[in-house]
Fold Cation transporting P-type ATPase.
Amino acid sequence: MPGDRGPRGSGPVTGSAMVRGAAGLTADEAAAALRRDGPNTLPAAKQRNPLLTLAGQMVHFFALMLWAAAGLALLAGMPALSIAIVVVVVLNGAFSFAQEYRADRAAERLRDLLPVRATVRRDGRAVVVDAADLVVGDVVLLEAGDRVCADGELTECGLLSVDESMLTGESRPVRPEIGGSVFAGTYVTEGHGVAIVTATGARSRLAGISAVTASAVRPRSPLATQLHRVVRIVALMAVAVGCVFFAAALGLGRAGTESFLLAIGVTVALVPEGLLPTVTLSLARAAQKMAGRNALVRRLESVETLGATTFICTDKTGTLTRNEMSVVRVWTPSGTVEVDGTGYRPVGELTGSPAAVRAATALADSAARCSPDAHAVEEANGWRPVGDPMEVALHVLAARAGVTAAPQPVGRRPFDPRRRRSSVVDVDGLHVSGAPDTVLPLCAEVSGADEAIAAFSRAGLRVLAVARNAEPAAQEEQGGLTLLGLVGLEDPPRPDVGAAIASCRRAGIRLAMVTGDHPGTAAAIAAEVGLLGPDRLVLEGKDLPADDEALGRLLDVDGVVVARVAPEEKLRIAKVLQARGHVVAMTGDGVNDGPALRTADIGVAMGASGSDVAREAADLVLLDDHFGTIVAAVELGRATFVNIRRFLTYHLTDNVAELTPFVVWALAGGQIPLAITVLQVLALDIGTDLLPAVALGAEPPNRRTMEGPAKGGSLIDGKLVRRAFGVLGPAEALASMAAFLVVLLGGGWWFGEVPDTALLATASGTAFTAIVLGQLANAFACRSESRWVGRIGLRGNPLLWFAIVFELAMLAAFLLMPPLPGLLGGTTPSPLGWVLAFATVPVVLLADTVHKAVRARS
């Protein structure tokens, strides 16, 4: 639409003769060519060998450290520990491989959701087809913002400018001429053209460089950088703790080999091997959920950035409104006409005085001629526009007025967002349509037009002026045009956009409407949907301050409307808001919106009506062009960030409980036996950390997710550390150690004595069971940072219940399935031991509840 899409050419009108193939192929010819040549798709990128990928998961830094530990254990005569370490390496590597493989497959499925289309002439009329269905001989219609989907020879060219940087590396667009070539993978940046397809798929020039493109590696995202930093810190802490225990064991008189193996076992147990694949899976699941809500995430790391959004700059047309343009009123110097009929069904009538109806009919004729390829087609579920919705609405108006087919144009200047008008030259002269402030200055007489514009704008109608020069020799958009009248178009708001805007306000997200529309129309729609702020601040692009700091202060309020904005001004708006500390989401659909979409923290492109350039530049593509979809994506992004913190808390709590028995043994100078063995620690990592952590990463958003500002900052902050190391971890550790000591004391052991082997195995099995059950309670406690388990409820995350069942099954196997109990060093607890182990559950939940209550009170 004017002001809301990419440029459609500039400069003098360029004439072009109709040449061979102008009517295009027939449907039957296209089908036969498709069967002969195959689809217009590039050869599939070579997939990484799954076996090599799996092997790579076994030889990274942490894995190499574990392999070394396994070898040392074997040389020291401890094959059981060596085998256990190998099992940890293999299981963690297999888990990481599974998540990476699943993420790759999910990314491929998500890419398939992104529509790539082309407009072609078939059977003598323009139709939209999938790019994969293009065949040699197709006549392709190219407009600014389109991606060229096949190699072709130009037969018509109206100020065409093509960005070939993807092929040549040259950033300056080229201007091909009639007879020249355009290539698949390039973008039309200006003007329009018609080309006959000469090569598709693997035979295109793009196919030769596709392998290089597919091998490009994207830099690591901020989220990935932060996660790797967390892993490095925890790994260094694990090595430091291992060194401390090595020194402590030597000080207590243990042999050097035994002390070294103890230190290696502690270090291995504390390495967070499963953390990164768990995060990847959490992001992939969120991206899949967003796709189910019509939001296509093009980069997984964008999921987390979405959750941190603090300012959304949204377009109006199609995002806040339905993008179903209908002409509802026409003003002419002879009077005003009401138009009966909505949508794109070309049936209705014009109501007014006979003179006004005749004038409106002449206006509709000229307006439709300015966009010769736009029309509506009937489908099973109604009428669908082909082309710009506003231009299609003008064609529908012409059909309702009884206008017959127009003559072929001999020259054309398509819509340009700087000129904000379009024109066509045919045998009847020059026809011009566009924004009133660009058309009226070219007209000889405009009396009454300003009052009509004001009335239309107050009613929330989009206004278009139509003029004509009937001189056969008229070629240029110069003065002396005859104003035929004004068109009032209605694009009603989406019915649920008001609720989505209210949700943003509750979430502390500021909103701005940034549109190319008339300020009166934009303000009317903003007020109707509830976006316009209490100050009712409405700005025009030409009036924005030149100073960036002043512009930032002006825009950094909620509910501002910026109308008549050019694409380059959208880029500036994104930058000044970022300079003020905002995480900015910017919507766009035109080719010139690409820089703004790339600069914004989250570029949001329209998937249904936007240009291919905008979709390629964006981080998020709205498959339904709906503002509510942005809000749903922000909600899922916030939930994903919280989920990552949930399973980080879960991991760290378990590490505290696993490490405490070794700390107690060292502080007691060996007078208290080790409550759990290194093999039991490894079994806990295998049996408790992985699946429940994955389940916590799949926790759905709750009703409080969009209440208040986003939770930003570091993944591991003071609050998380205090909760894991000061509350949940100590509660689980104390309960498990108490159970261990009570069973020992109840069996006749006293401090400093060497316990009976069977008694120690029973007590150790009790401590092991207590930690497993404590982790069960910990999983439910980690579902919320502020609400106790009773308020969260036990439903809402079926995957967590599956993980708990698996955890209990693993516990039973470790305690009952030979030879695991003897290998690990713990047997089934005594009746008293079972009671004490199960007591860990209420202890952990009570500590969590008290901590949350104290935090709420403070």
About this structure: Residues 16-212 form a domain with the Calcium-transporting ATPase, cytoplasmic transduction domain A fold (CATH 2.70.150.10). Residues 1-21, 211-219 have pLDDT under 50 and may be disordered. The chain is about 50% helix and 15% strand. The first helix runs from residue 27 to 37.
